[in-house]
Write a structure and sequence with these properties.
Layout (H helix, E strand, L loop, with lengths): L2 H17 L6 H8 L3 H7 L3 H25 L4 H17 L3 H10 L1 H28 L9 H17 L5 H4 L2 H15 L2 H10 L5
């Protein structure tokens, strides 16, 4: 993605986050960004193409954050805490209108990036779980593939649930209890000591 296109994508991303996708027309983009239609259509053939580019930017930005999180020189428990803090940040930043519009009006784009996000999350957690077992910080009898998949269901179910109100899901207390529920279920005795030294980072 060239520099000019990236600049447009970043600004359109903020418009979509603020107003949703459906209500932001190509004319709105031209007006808000102060560019000509010719310039806009040099970079995007239509609105679907623009939505695809914006969601690619969103995905790649979050992917970089996950890579940093899992690439840090930390033990598996510390890494899990960092990952959890990142998850909280992403959930707090969740824009229901944008996701609703994407799912309803651009289902192919939604399905494509949802699949990539699932794979990213699964692979990152699987790597962490395997590492935790190797370090002796997680239970030796842990079924890592199953736990990684269960975590996907847990996160997706939480975001789509009618049981919890959006403000509950975004609360630090809710999230801390959720992480404790997961973490204390997978750590060994050795891992529990490391977890208890780091759990307050979730405040």
């Amino acid at each position: 993605m060239n520099e000019k296109k990236l600049e447009i994508v970043k600004k359109v991303y903020e418009l979509y986050r603020q107003f949703g996708i459906r209500s932001v027309t190509m004319d709105d983009v031209v007006r808000e960004l102060g560019i000509s239609k010719k310039t806009l259509y040099q970079h995007f053939k239509d609105k679907t193409d623009m939505v695809l580019a914006v969601m690619e930017y969103d995905f790649e930005t979050k992917k970089e954050e996950y890579i940093k999180c899992f690439g840090a020189q930390l033990n598996a428990v510390e890494e899990l805490i960092n990952y959890s803090i990142l998850q909280l940040k992403i959930i707090m930043d969740h824009k229901p209108t944008l996701i609703y519009d994407l799912k309803k009006y651009y289902p192919a784009v939604f399905d494509h990036f949802n699949k990539l996000k699932r794979e990213n999350m699964y692979n990152g957690l699987l790597m962490n779980l395997k590492r935790g077992k190797k370090e002796g910080l997680y239970r030796s009898d842990l079924n890592v593939e199953l736990i990684a998949r269960l975590n996907l269901v847990r996160v997706e179910g939480m975001l789509n649930s009618k049981i919890f109100k959006p403000e509950e899901i975004r609360s630090h207390e809710f999230f801390k209890e959720l992480i404790k529920y997961h973490a204390y279920g997978i750590v060994s005795e050795k891992g529990r000591k490391v977890l208890e030294l780091n759990i307050d980072k979730l405040k």
